[in-house]
Write a structure and sequence with these properties.
Strand order of the largest sheet: 1-7-6-5-4-2-3
Number of helices: 13
Radius of gyration: 22 Å
CATH architecture of the largest domain: 3-Layer(aba) Sandwich
Number of domains: 2
Helix content: 25-40%
Bound molecules: pyridoxal-5'-phosphate
Largest sheet: 7 strands, mixed
Distance between the termini: 51 Å
CATH topology of the largest domain: Aspartate Aminotransferase, domain 2
CATH superfamily of the largest domain: Type I PLP-dependent aspartate aminotransferase-like (Major domain)
Structural class: alpha/beta
Shape: globular
Strand content: 5-15%
């Protein structure tokens, strides 16, 4: 089956008693067993049958199965946020004395998780330029537990050579973990690019318009011990499994993901081209533009589309604030891939508590506005941007 069919037709592990077409919400915690032996087999993982909803729930399982079908993964585990998926993945590979080879160009909370929280438990960050393969090679040593990166960084929109990184890492038996939140797995196969573990904030594209928080660990099975840790140690001991109501919402989102994504990506490309013609904008950053430094690499790795995040630079921070204050249709809000177009000044919000020197190291500029392009008619989005530019 092709992706759009898999997203809709993945069968349930056990058929619903009433033949419900949309996924039923099993809003319960415990499951009954017909006899003591079956119960013992389920609890000791000799058979696969849900016993307690912190570890398994049929509504969540169906969501995971659909993602498994769409990605060709060996194992998929759903969490109650993107950060829960990321922290569980990193806890599964790391430990006292280990180091993580990664970049300063990371989602702010992921950077803080690696450079503050995990550091307190004896895991060391090695922040490098991941677009420089020699630097990656030099950073990996005996104690490296993974190379961690985002496939298109936000808000810098930097793209690293995934195959090149995977080759270097695999020679040294180090897994590559990649956050693919900004380009959905319906578009690109990270498995084919050598990624071992994919993590996703399903809060974004998958939740369908910002309905719920969720996250995924998509495990390609190259390091079986990682799945063992996630499923049989961390899920049980940390308790960050997705809830059935969220799995229901995100399953609905998954069914329309590809259709929505295609529209958002084509809106974004058209708008990026139009914004490049606006004299009040100093710079338009979108990896789908032909003159973008990552255009060719992004096409090779992710195919014809380039996501729905565009950033623009205006002449000053004041101009950015004026611009945001003049928007009428576009919402001043964070979040990515909502149905609505959103705009934010990252330096004063998401990164507002970082010192200026740190922002410079992270290439987060005071002159940048980030857009997440929505599902509206793109001409209306452009009109709003043009009228707000006239106000600065
Ligand atoms: C939003 C986001 C996260 C965190 O996801 P939550 O679901 O908000 O916990 C992680 N990585 C990237 C790239 C994101 O955009």
């Amino acid at each position: 089956m092709k992706k759009q069919t898999i997203a809709i037709h993945t069968p349930y592990v056990r058929p619903d008693a009433y033949g419900a077409l949309a996924v039923p919400i099993y809003n319960n915690v415990a499951f009954e067993f017909q006899d003591a032996q079956t119960m013992s087999d389920a609890f000791c993982n000799r058979i696969k049958s849900p016993d307690y909803a912190r570890m398994e729930n049929p509504t969540v399982t169906n969501f995971e199965q659909r993602v498994k079908g769409l990605t060709g993964a060996a194992h998929v585990t759903a969490f109650n946020s993107g950060m829960a998926a990321i922290s569980n993945a990193l806890l599964a590979v790391s430990g006292q004395g280990k180091n993580i080879v990664t970049s300063r160009h990371l989602f702010g909370n992921t950077l803080a998780l690696i450079s503050n929280t995990l550091l307190r438990f004896g895991v060391k960050p090695r922040l490098r330029d991941l677009t420089n393969l020699e630097a990656v090679d030099a950073a990996i040593d005996e104690q490296t537990c993974c190379v961690y990166l985002e496939i298109v960084t936000n808000p810098q929109l930097e793209v690293a050579d995934l195959k090149g990184i995977a080759e270097i890492a695999h020679k040294k038996k180090v897994p590559v973990i990649a956050d693919s939140t900004v380009i959905p797995f319906t578009e690109t196969s990270l498995k084919d690019l050598g990624v071992d573990i994919e993590v996703v904030s399903s809060t974004k594209y998958i939740s369908c318009g910002g309905t719920s928080l969720g996250g995924l660990i998509i495990d390609y099975g190259t390091y079986p011990q990682i799945n063992q840790r996630v499923k049989y140690e961390l899920l049980v001991n940390l308790g960050a499994y997705m809830t059935p109501q969220v799995a229901y919402l995100q399953t609905l989102g998954l069914e329309t993901l590809d259709v929505r994504y295609q529209r958002q990506a084509s809106n974004a490309l058209w708008l990026a081209q139009e914004l490049s013609q606006q004299p009040a904008i100093e710079y338009v950053n979108y990896v789908g533009l032909k003159d973008n430094p990552y255009y060719t690499l992004a096409r090779q790795q992710f195919g014809a589309t380039a996501g729905a995040i565009i950033t623009i630079d205006l002449k000053s921070k004041e101009a950015c604030f004026d611009f945001l204050d003049h928007l009428k249709l576009i919402h001043r809000a964070t979040n990515l891939f909502d149905s609505r177009t959103l705009a934010i000044h990252p330096a004063s919000t998401i990164f507002g508590l970082f010192p200026q020197r740190q922002l410079e190291l992270m290439d987060v500029r005071q002159t940048t506005i980030r857009f997440s392009i929505g599902l509206e008619d793109p001409e209306d989005i452009l009109e709003d941007i043009k009228q707000a530019l006239r106000g600065i």
